[in-house]
Design brief:
By secondary structure, this protein is an alpha+beta fold. Helices cover about 15% and strands about 40% of the residues. The strands form two sheets. It has a five-stranded mixed sheet, with no helix packed on it. It has a four-stranded mixed sheet with strand order 2-1-4-7, with no helix packed on it.
């Protein structure tokens, strides 16, 4: 019985070590904002399930987005740009930087129901 108990305790201990080794407080794939001065700062307002402006043109390079939520909490994400997200609480402004190459991008709010209600826009990077 003592041998069985010590084997069980050892197995549980090893399992705990293996489990804690799988996680990371840094998120492993966490988004890392680019450093450096942005080529353009773009202010976006989120209100009533829409962005203003909803169409933006910017040069390629580091862009800084400033999201101001006029009513409830909103987020700002860019499709196919993994990990980049800004969230602004009601009445607050939040900002973030992202480096983009030329192309056409869709930005949206990922709060449940917001994108489907029309909270998205187009970003053209030249």
């Amino acid at each position: 019985m003592l041998r069985r108990l010590s084997t069980t305790v050892a197995a549980v201990g090893l399992g705990a070590v293996a489990f804690t080794g799988c996680g990371s407080s840094s998120g492993g794939g966490a988004y890392s904002q680019p450093t450096g001065k942005p080529v353009k700062t773009i202010s976006i307002q989120g209100t009533s399930y829409k962005f203003t402006p909803s169409t933006v043109t910017a040069p390629a390079g580091i862009l800084e987005f400033k999201l101001t939520s006029e009513d409830i909490q909103h987020s700002f994400r860019i499709k196919n740009v993994n990990g980049f997200m800004i969230e602004a609480a009601s009445g607050k402004t939040a900002s973030g930087k992202v480096k983009l190459s030329p192309g056409k991008y869709t930005f949206y709010c990922d709060i449940p129901g917001h994108e489907s209600a029309g909270m998205e826009g187009t970003l053209t990077v030249t």
